[in-house]
Amino acid sequence: MKGLFVTGTDTGVGKTVAAAALMHRLRGAGLLRYWKPIQTGIEIDDDTATVRRLGACSEDEIFDQGVRLPKPVSPHLAAEWAGQRIDLAELRGLVDFDEDGATWIVEGAGGLLVPINESQTMADWIAYLALPVLVVARSGLGTINHTLLTLEALRARRLRVAGVMMIGEPNADNRAAIEQYGHAPVVAEMPFLAPLDPGLLAAWSVTHIDPQGRLLELPR
């Protein structure tokens, strides 16, 4: 299995836009697929539809199966309210990742330690998939602490860090601190794009995301 798991330092930090940007950036290096395994608040937001649109994705590039729950709350709570339990083994069984050698962009729900069921968190799901992790973080005040905590939690669990993508007004000091103290490359600083549409996102992504090509050497 090869690809990236996209997590964030918080809910609403920009993971879905980052995932769409990655579809533009990594397209052309072979078959590429996006998957949002767990989606809560489906009656309000559909991240898969957003990535399909912003990423200008073909149907072959979207895998639209998984847990889909109402109410924009933590997965464990949304499942409880719906009378369900999220089982990671069942979720993993939906996909044969190695069938066609595709590169997968898998987007998490919320942050790293968001509970999925009574005993497991998003970090356990990442470990189950064994994918390197791209951390999406805000660029402004507070991001150093939140990002360093996320990186530390990933490494404490022996999860691989692919890098950090910062979203918002570029902040050179915050970027430098994250790279220095977090020992992780910032692979992109995405400003707030306006209008946020597929064309502008594509033009920005292919030029500004990971110019050194680190993410194209995705380990299995």
What is shown here, in short?
The protein has 220 residues and is of the alpha/beta class. It has helices at 15-26, 47-54, 75-81, 88-92, 122-129, 143-156, 172-182, 198-208, and strands at residues 2-8, 32-35, 38-40, 62-63, 67-69, 103-111, 133-138, 161-167, 186-190.
| Overall spatial form | globular
Beta content comes to 15-25%
Order of helices and strands: EHEEHEEHHEHEHEHEH
Q: List low-confidence stretches.
A: none
- What is the CATH architecture assignment? 3-Layer(aba) Sandwich
Helix count, DSSP H or I runs of 4 or more residues = 8
Q: Numbering strands along the chain, what is their spatial order in the largest sheet?
A: 4-2-6-1-7-8-9
pLDDT averaged over residues = 95
Q: Supply the number of structural domains.
A: 1
Ends apart, CA distance between termini: 6 Å
Q: What characterizes the major β-sheet?
A: 7 strands, parallel
Going by CATH, what is the homologous superfamily? P-loop containing nucleotide triphosphate hydrolases
Number of β-strand runs: 9
CATH topology: Rossmann fold
Name the structural class. Answer: alpha/beta
What does this structure look like?
With 220 residues, this protein is α/β, with parallel strands linked by helices. It has one domain: P-loop containing nucleotide triphosphate hydrolases (Rossmann fold). The chain has 8 helices and 9 strands. The strands form 2 sheets. Strands 4-2-6-1-7-8-9 form a 7-stranded parallel beta sheet, sandwiched between helices. Strands 3-5 form a two-stranded parallel ribbon. Helix 1 (15-26) crosses helix 8. The longest helix is centred in the last third of the chain and has 14 residues, at 143-156. The radius of gyration is 16 Å and the shape is globular. The protein starts with a strand and ends in a 12-residue tail after the last helix. The mean pLDDT is 95.
